[in-house]
Predict the 3D structure of the following.
Amino acid sequence: MQLQSITTATIPGYRVYEYLLVLSPHEELWNRIIKVKTEFSEKYKNDYAKWGKPHITLANFLQYELMEERLVNRLNMIAMGFHPIKVELRDYGSFPSHTIYINVVSKLPIQSLVKTIRTEAQRLMKLNDDNKPHFILEPHLTIARKLEPWQYEKGWLEYSHKHFTGRFIADGMLLLKRPLNEHRYQIVRRLEFQNLAVTTKQGELFISVVFVLLSVFPSLRQKKQYTMSEKLQQDHYKVKPKDADETQQYHAGRGAQFNTKNRFLKNEVTKEHIEGIDEWEETNLKTQYIEVHPKTIVNKVESPD
């Protein structure tokens, strides 16, 4: 990350840190990627491949340590609005001349997360006008960066033909930080995404409540069973006009919104065999425009007023 005008922005007594917001793979996949990075480092003499830990960067920024608590609170609120993300990795890619990485196939949910972070937390990540946060909208998992030309050419010649597959569930983000000009990051906070297990328990609780209500008030269950059995015994399901509350959904420019049944009606739409597996498709005719060419104008008005 480019460090600019740090001395002019420094507040006496407060330190500026470099922060990193990332998604981290599970241990087994983490170890596999570490092995790939180590092999690349040893073969092509690149220290950045050896130092960097496996992660997908979401955002990178500089900020005062005193802003950390407010930033963590904001990021925690953002994380609670997202479900765990399924991340799929496949093969290798590169940024020409300087970086080789593992491709992230499932980009859209990660990009959505990054855009939300940018919208809701960008102000808290901005140190000054010269040091603004950097949001990664092209998710990738770096193997080696800051490559010399010969390292990139030989490395990419090999890794462009290699294969790699992996997947993991990102159930939270990691906020990391390090002092300027140091290599080692430390974990500030793990920010958990919305827990699907909690949602499942809430659903189970709701179902339990419904069963209790049905046992306490059996009339509810009897009424429901009677209604369903009554419908199943019908030979035909007549298309009938919408109720008063549904007629409010008016389709402009289409005239009458339903055909009222009357004794002169020769044809009507019915639903046959309601137990069939085919979906019932009600007709939804589009407005038809019929071009006519009248010979005279009806009721031609020639009155001066």
Confidence is low (pLDDT under 50) at residues 234-248, 272-282. The CA atoms of residues 211 and 221 lie 10 Å apart.
